[in-house]
Amino acid sequence: MAGAIATFGSSARAGAALEERKLPMKFGWVACEPNCRGWISAVGIITADTPRDFEEFARGRQLGGATVVLDSSGGSVNDAISLGRRFRNLGLLTTVGISLQNRGGQSARPAVAPEAYCESMCVFLLLAGKKRYVPEAAHVRVHQIWMGDRADDAKAASYSAQDLMIVERDIGRLAKYTFDMGGAGDLLSLALSVPPWEDLHELDSGELKLTNLVTTDLVADVLPHVDVTAPAMAELAPKTQARFGAEPEQPAKSTQTAEALVPTGGVAAPAAAAQK
Question: Model pTM?
Answer without folding.
Answer: 0.78
